Amino acid sequence: MQPxxxxxxxxxxxxxxxxxxxxxxxxxxxxxxxxxxLDDVSLDIRPGRFxxxxxxxxxxxxxxxxxLAGLRQQTSGTVTINGAPILQPDPNRVGVVFQxxxxxxxxxxxxxxxxxxxxxxxxxxxxxxxxxEALKLVxxxxxxxxxxxxxxxxxxxxxxIARGLVQDPPVLLMDEPFAALDEQTRMxxxxxxxxxxAATGKTVVFVTHSLTEAVYLADEVVVMSARPGRIVDQLQVxxxxxxxxxxxxxxxxxxxxxxxxxxxxxxx
Amino acid sequence: xxxxxxxxxxxxxLIALWEMLPRSGLVPELFLPSLSSTLVAGWNEAGEYGxxxxxxxxxxxxxxxxxxGGGILLGAIVGxxxxxxxxxxxxVxxxxxxxxxxxxxxxxxxxxxxxxxxxxxxxxxxxxxTMLATSAGIQTIDPQLLLAARSMGATLSQRLLRVVLxxxxxxxxxxxxxxxxxxxxxxxxxxxxxxxxxIGYLISRYRTILDSPHVxxxxxxxxxxxxxxxxxxxxxxxxxxxWQTGTRGGRDTTAAANLQPAT
Lengths: 268, 263
Hints:
The complex is a heterodimer. Chain A contains seven helices and ten strands. Chain A is α/β, with parallel strands linked by helices. Chain A has a domain at about 20-95 and about 200-268: Rossmann fold. In chain A, the strands form two sheets. In chain A, strands 6-7-8-3-9-10 form a six-stranded mixed beta sheet, with helices on both faces. In chain B, helix 3 packs antiparallel against helix 8 (about 155-195). The radius of gyration of chain B is 22 Å and the shape is globular. Chains A and B meet through helix 2 of A and helix 7 and helix 8 of B.
């Protein structure tokens, strides 16, 4: 039965987790001059992809992430997620994980994860159940009653990830989430993140300064240039998954890293 | 031996010395009456001390409300708004460095030698550090926390109630500690200078007639008041600032509490 076979909708509704940037620009006006932080950035991210943004300091990659989070408005162009523009923070569409010190120190791990639900007045029992589930997902089963100062740096970031995921948004944004961690913890957290990503199927946009981390984690690496920030390259990382430590020393890995590095050196 | 037992032993030792030194005649009773004679003196005049303590406690309580309530409120407002902060804070800071006790005679001219002048003086005396601490506390709130709350869709009032307020509690408490201690100092000192009632008045009256046991009984009651206040603040701190990692909520706050302006 194919009654509607030859009727194609004008524009199919995008699947949850689709991100579209069209001609996005950001100009900061200061007293003396206008500074262009982002210039005509267009990018399509398909649902469930792991995309890493890299670039020299001040290239606007964090600014771009803040726009996706609805924490900053672009001066030109459009930013849409699930086909609808992002005009303000929308935790149902986007979860955000920041650099280390963004957990509320006066709340327990559990209460931190529940925080976004509490803002919306979700009943206590449901909150508890969902926080427990999220903590379990990030491997912190049984640590819910601890305060952040009783957790290691890696565990704190796990709590942050759980908080970002607790409302089950299709998109997870991560702003240098592992930058403050030591190298070993960082590697472990990378593997953990990939496991969580594979288990949940979220679209992840991840900002980092580490080229190794970028290639290790990504499906696609988006390289940006220094101010004004533009996209200068998009690399598909076709290394098989699960990614392993041995791949770091392989030729394919090295070639990708080098290609990114050349762009960054040129624009720095 | 743990630090706590050692500390208790030191206190016990000092108490024993207080009893033994005057008794053995090493220190004249006029300079330091023994603990037992101090307690007996206080006990014999229990009614008088009780009455004086009531007056002093009443003045302290009212001044605390003005100093701490006003200090926290104004500190929070000034701390969160940049313009008033730039305008007012330098003035408050320099005022804090002025030995305010020089104003006390003026207060007695305006308000008489009753409780009003003490309350006015002690309120201003405790108000300044509380306001300074609160305003500093509001400013040190990590902007990252506010950004995170915003990313989760928190409205302005939710950010104030759920982020700014709890984040400011430790600094507000340390302000309370300093402010409250200064209120006690302010009340007792002003009672000692010009007054007709209160513990400070008793102390200075007995001093003029060289009745050391009664002077020390007064000193002991002020000491008790300060200890009770300190314990109360500490228990609030323990409950409210459980998440503080020992540096601000713990013992180190006593160092900040000893910070005193020139009198």
